[in-house]
Structures are given as C-alpha cells and as structure tokens.
Amino acid sequence: MAQEVIYSDSSTSTFHGGGGSFHExxxxxxxxxxxxxxxxxxxxxxxxxxxxxxxxxxxxAIVNVIEPLTGKKYKRSMNGKKxxxxxxxxxxxxxxxxxxxxxx
Length: 104
Prior knowledge:
The protein is built from three helices and four strands. It is an alpha+beta fold and 104 residues long. It has a four-stranded antiparallel sheet with strand order 3-2-1-4, with helices on one face.
C-alpha cells in the first residue's frame, strides 16, 4: 500500500507500505530540512542541552534552516531554542496543511 502526498507547489512525497519513501520538489525538501531541525531541537531541549544529534546541531539548525525562513534572529538560550522549535513546528504545519493525500 502506497501513499502519495502532493503539496501546494506540486512537490510530491511517496511513501511505500514496506518502508522507504521518495521526495521531489522544493517544498518537500524544505519540509524534510525542517523535520531534521525539529528533531535536533527537540532532543536538545528534552535533555536540557546535554545531548545533541551533532556538535552544535541545535544551533546550526536554527541558523541554517529556521532563521532564513522566518527572518527572525533567535537567542542562543534555551528559551530561544524553544521559540525556534515552536516556529519550526508552525512552518511544518503550514506546509502539510495545504497537502493532498492519495492512498492506494
């Protein structure tokens, strides 16, 4: 059973029932970048800064992924990271909100 998701800019994601997926288009790639940034920030916040996906992963996720999309500068503090995570989740919801899902 496969599932195909079409986003507002005609980008597509195809998820296969046995595992694996295929993504093409700019909005789909931006969504994947945001999901990775969300994971990095979530782990950092959950473990109170004592665990990261990579060295400086949470801060680099903010600087390279979230700040260019929101146009905001986030503080390096825990509160700044929490604010960035909330904005990241809102961006993901915005992308997924306009998607159409087809299932086989």
